[in-house]
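mind reviewing this fold:
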Amino acid sequence: MNRPYTSKELEQLLQDANARAHKGRLNRLQVLVSEGDQDPAPIPSLAVAYFEEARLCWVDGAFVATIVMSQLAFEEALRAHYRMWHGVRGKIDSGKEVSDAGFAELVDQSKNDGWILPEEAEALHRLRKDYRNPYVHSKDIPGRPDFFTQTLKIFAPEILRTGVEEEARESITLLVSLLPRICRRLWGIE
């Protein structure tokens, strides 16, 4: 049985981890500052919470969480917009209630309604299909990334020449640059 750590030992473990991670966190924070839209935007409260968590996950190096939280921030911003327009039980064009519509349906509806541009919709679908889905739906389906591919992206990206950090960087860059712009448009400011 392992002996419990003393408070001093735990503090040293934290200091060691912080020292190892500092350079990476600093570089990732620079991405947020350089890529982010610095104009304040009216982002719905739950979407703001997801937005901030995605940013924290990115800076701390929680790359899968960065991807998932980025997608959730976009989804909640679009859902909040349609709740306002159609009501919580209101329906979008697919016939689904706003609360039951998936991210893909909300993106398509927003594009059809002119709230997001076709290239923005394409980027959001790429975020969903290529980055988020393989981690959230890690089933072994032919033609889709399997658990082994996802594992390599996390632990051995050099084998694939790409990895979860690059996917998270694309996701967070999309989030901090596009979400404020979309929200300003949704709320009639842009």
Observations:
- The longest helix spans residues 7-35.
- Residues 44-186 form a domain with the Four Helix Bundle (Hemerythrin (Met), subunit A) fold (CATH 1.20.120).
- The chain has eight helices and no strands.
